[in-house]
Amino acid sequence: MYVRKVAIGMLLVAAFAAATSLGAARWLVDPQTPAPLPQARSDQIFGTLVVASQSLTFGTSLAAKDLREIPWPDDAIPAGSYSRIRDLLGDVPRVVLFPLAENEPVLASKITGDGDRGGLSALLPAGRRAVGVPVDEIAGVGGFVSPGDRVDVVLTRSGGSDGGVPDGGRADVILQGIGVLSVDQVVDWTNIEPGVPRVVTLDVSIAEAQKLVLAMETGRLSLVLRGAGDTSTVGIGHVTASHFQGLDDGDASARARITVVRSDVREDYSVPVSASAVSSSQLD
């Protein structure tokens, strides 16, 4: 009798396992068959969350048609979000500052606040300034600089007797890791189409703004595009034309110019030096 009960129990377990395996196999073979969905807890409390009803770009003036309310777990409501469309729109027009995807929660940090304008000034946090730098297809990295990128700024000055610039000129990296706010009048971060810009607007501090304005009056500015996510800052010395003097095509060696004075007679000589000596002596 006992053996019979055990056998019946084992058969029932085997049948249940076979049915479960058959259901899983059916879902794997036919992915269109809906998989079992997790059930919400019976004690789960839901609130509402305002999301974008369609993709919204920078500068879009929000209207009720651009938004919708969806149920959302009350204990997972994002900070800075809105629960009602009427609360978001209010009495003052709101403008999109950062692109919003369809069904993305609309946060206060991504739209203008009460009384804010939807222009470039709305993107600047306290203490920051926007400075436009004139560029061309070369100084502007071939037109591949876009809003949201980060660049280094290089100042090049021509040689001459004034300003202490040596003959042949000098180049200095004056700013590193500077954010790009706009290219010409394009502020949309999703716009990655290359073009030939005339002005690139940079996000800088007041001290960096002073550097840029003075540099524009002193020489030529060029932008150096950084890799995405590169926030490093490195110590870089200036470069002058003397670093390239005496370099012969196809020859790794360099030559230095020395002056020998005998009595009242000055004579110049060109002598060969190793490239490593030039690098260590001139770049320090």
Task: Note down, in words, how this protein is organized.
The chain has 284 residues and is of the alpha+beta class. The protein is 19% helix and 26% strand. The chain has helices at residues 2-29, 85-89, 206-218, 275-282, and strands spanning 46-52, 67-73, 129-134, 150-157, 170-183, 199-204, 220-225, 239-240, 254-262, 265-273.
* Global shape: elongated
Q: What fraction, in percent, of the residue positions are helical?
A: 10-25%
Radius of gyration: 33 Å
Number of strands: 10
- Provide the structure class: alpha+beta
N-to-C order of helices and strands: HEEHEEEEHEEEEH
Mean pLDDT: 74
Q: Characterize the biggest β-sheet.
A: 6 strands, antiparallel
Assess the beta-strand content as a share of residues. 25-35%
Specify the number of helices. Answer: 4
State the end-to-end CA separation. 97 Å
Any key phrases for this structure?
alpha+beta; disordered C terminus; 284 residues; 4 helices; two-stranded antiparallel sheet
Walk me through the topology.
Layout: H1 2-29, E1 46-52, E2 67-73, H2 85-89, E3 129-134, E4 150-157, E5 170-183, E6 199-204, H3 206-218, E7 220-225, E8 239-240, E9 254-262, E10 265-273, H4 275-282
Antiparallel strand pairs: 1-2, 3-6, 4-5, 4-7, 5-6, 5-8, 9-10
Give a brief rundown of this model.
The protein is of the alpha+beta class. Helices cover 19% and strands 26% of the residues.
